[in-house]
Structure formats: structure tokens, C-alpha cells
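Objective 1.3, modelling of assemblies. Example input:
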Amino acid sequence: MARLKVGVLVSGRGSNLQALLDAASDPGYPAEIALVLSNVPGVQALERAARAGVATAVIDHKAFDGRGPFEDAVHAVLVEHGVEFVCLAGFMRILTDGFVSRWFDRLINIHPSLLPAFRGAHAHRDALAAGVRVSGCTVHFVRPAMDDGPIVVQAAVPVLPGDAEADLAARVLEQEHRAYPLALRLIAEGRARVAGDRVEIDAPDAAGALINPRD
Ligand code: GRF
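Predicted structure (C-alpha cells):
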């Protein structure tokens, strides 16, 4: 079966990208990374892509007059590389409704909280401030509102006494690296499908939940 051609949008470190690259390096994985596109030049994610022999592109948003023209350029490069599905992996630009509709149900994101709790850029800080005992990460289809959309996979971790933001972030990140490849695999195999505001997963062995440390 043909592998799903995926474009990954990044802005920085790229550890989730690495998890996807590692998964896709197995020929049995149902998706291949066709392109890694960064809006920031020189980031580590681009090095990771190059090391994996994957095509890269840099589209610096600062070179554009507004989000629309920037997103048109991103869209054009994705299409040029035959990308069929897009993963956001630490991509630090808000996408407009226009881009989201062009990639509707073909665009997913990973967020470091158990959505719908703690949307936004300070998920771990907010989780600690709220005193929750469990946090985690969510892979979800992208909708125009930030950190919103049908949930594919979640992974949960404990919040431990004395945790600083960095401790919780590291514990969650480890699970992100399992959740993202799992979510993409389920989608690429046609086993996770959007149904209204939710995602239906149609295999008993593939519930979209991971519980730390091992499920
Ligand atoms: C991750 O925590 C992800 O959940 C959030 O941004 C971070 C990106 O990290 N959206 P990396 O670039 O994948 O290492």
C-alpha cells in the first residue's frame, strides 16, 4: 500500500519531528515524511531532517506582508512536494482559517496538555498552577480556534510533588514522542477518522490512550 506523504511544519528543536522520522524510517510504517518546512532558518529540526535524508524548506514568515501571503507560500511548497497530510510539530505560527480549510481533516497538531484543559503557550505552567494530578499531551485535528479540534490520541502522566515546569515538560515530552507516531499511524491506516467533533478509532488494540509509564 502507498505510504501517506506527510509534510511536517516546525519552528525549533524538532524532537517530535525526530519521533516521526524514526517511525517513518521503518518501511512498514504507513506514512513517509516527504518534507520538513520551517518558518525559522537554522533550527535544529532542519538538521534532523537533513540527517534523515528528508527534503527541507525554509519559509521565513518575516519576509512576508501578513499571514495570508506567508501561508500561500507554505501551501505552494507543500503541494510541490506532493504532500497529502500535514503535521504541526512545534510550529509557532498561528494558522488562519484559510490555511486550516485548505487542509481540513488533513492537518494535525500536538499540544502538551490533556485538551481541552490548558490551551495556549504555557500549558505546563498552567497545569502546575491549577494543581492537577495528571497531565499529558494530545494529538488533535486542527480547527481554526487555537488548540481545538477532534482528539486522536492522548497520553497521560502524573504530576509529582515538587515538579517544576521543566520536570513536567520533560515527562510529557517523552510521551509526546510515543503519541504522535501512534496518531499518525492510526490516521494513515484509515483506523482513526473524524466523525463530527470526535475521532472514531476502529480497532480494539488501538485505543487512543497511553498511560505513563507503559500502557
Ligand atoms: C512540544 O512540547 C509540542 O507539544 C509543542 O511544542 C513543543 C515542540 O517541541 N506544540 P519539539 O520542537 O517537537 O521538540
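The pocket of 5-O-phosphono-beta-D-ribofuranosylamine is lined by residues 12-17, 89-90, 110-112, 137, 173, 176 (CB under 6 Å).
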